[in-house]
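Predict fold of Protein S100-A3; 101 aa.
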Amino acid sequence: MTRPLEQAVAAIVCTFQEYAGRCGDKHKLCQAELKELLQKELPTLSPTEFRECDYNKFMSLLDTNKDCEVDFEEYVHSLASLCLYCYEYFKDCPPRPPCSQ
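Predicted 3D structure, encoded as tokens:
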């Protein structure tokens, strides 16, 4: 039986692989792939009122090597930042049951 952290790591890798390569390089996300990933996999964190220019800005923040794509390392760094933000936001909540703030 896999543990939750093992499942989380597998989900991170599998999600990237599911979306990467639909438009080209299977090891990178183009902006369209990143947009679809955000909309489908993080719907409560990617507002529906995002405009195309918002996705352009988000892409430029994640694309640290400026190759107009997000590779796996850039993707993982963005998820780590999201985890840090969530930890800071929820750190004073009791560990169980999960906070519903």
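The mean pLDDT is 88.
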